[in-house]
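Milestone M4 deliverable, item 7.
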Amino acid sequence: MSTLQIDLFNDGLKDKRVKNKNTIRKIESVIELVIMAIAYYFMWKYKIFDKAYFFPFLGKGKYVLMGVYFVLMLVIIHLCEGFKYGILKIADVLFSQWIAILIVNGVTYFQLCLMANAMIPIKPLVWLSLIDFAVSLVCVYIFFAIYERYSKASKLLMVYGNKESVGLKLKMDTRADSYNIKKIVSIDEGEDAIFEMLNNYDGLVISDVSAEQRNDLLKYCYMHNIETYITPKISDVIIGGGEGIHQFDTPLVMINTTGLTPEQAIVKRFFDLVLCIIAAVVLSPLMLIVAIAIKLEDHGPVFYKQARVTKDGKVFDILKFRSMVEDAEQRPATDDDDRITKVGHVIRATRIDELPQIFNIIKGDMSIVGPRPERTEHVDKYTAAIPEFEFRSKVKGGLTGYAQIYGKYNTSAYDKIKLDLMYIENYSFLLDVKLVLMTIRIVFKKESTEGFDKVVTADEILAELDNEQK
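Output delivered:
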């Protein structure tokens, strides 16, 4: 074979490897959905419901209902990121699917009540949920095993500009099942040398490289079907949210510099009000119990107020259930932080201390989804260090958001800004729904620090990799 034929063959293998991962994942998703839809079908086939309620649907109508159930499961599990076999951890995928199952079966129950024009017995839907949980448990473990069997981690070359950016390797190493960075080189090695090295790798990670050099690397990888990962700059995030204009023979991208459009703001506000009013009613007994517990413990105030910054730099008082003693700010923190009350330990661990912010949202100071509102002194500090921090103020601060869902305890301020801008520049009502659903999963997860038990310098990372290669 000629050199050109060999290169084309290798490129084809790399391209096929990426496509195989996605194909396996999609096939697994469809199989699981079909099994769940069949379970729903058998509820009708064996007439679990009273014939008097659903007689017209006991014939071919049950196939239509089966299709509706399939589509509902598809949409909600997708929004909860429950099909990310081999991308998320098994526990995350499983928990995401169980949340989706509860939501879909809850919606299905009320759908059937409307069809029957009566409150039907809930027992069949409870049994269906248990069956779906079992199907999910078995399928997720089997599908992860299949995915890991036929999808090997990509062997990657990492190119960095700023030496401190090699810390990305530690984060990617936590997912060794998907990413395997075998070598790290500086962009100063020269593009020709890097192109030569790429012959021995499945893909390239480009971290904090200048725009011109990054473009050269990206174009080379695109031409040769090389899997490529890039850490975006803030300008990339802003451009990514732009709208393509095709009125001329020259492509244009229009950048939205004002945050949400008026119609988006109206829909978002309506969504906030409806959801928070319902939540305030449903959670009022729990909030009353917490308020009484706080008052009984030390007779202090129930709520804690703190000045935070929201849209356009407006300052407001954020509400939380008080979880510390009254004079906590005048007392130094200790290892076990004895400033936290007994009730405080419980409500912090369960995130219940954040519930009063429902009233901040109803008032209009906050939104359910958006960048987390920071303290005034933190805004001044971060803006002085990173001027782009001010970009977050184009929308209202939120109870949850991209940075809270995808970020970690030790995520840098610069990366959090990029996450918040990804939300602002890609806003849609459906995205808000997705982030609310994903927040349910995050609430029950212990906050992660990506496995960093100590600060590791860039020199230590490079030295360790050099030792592995020798």
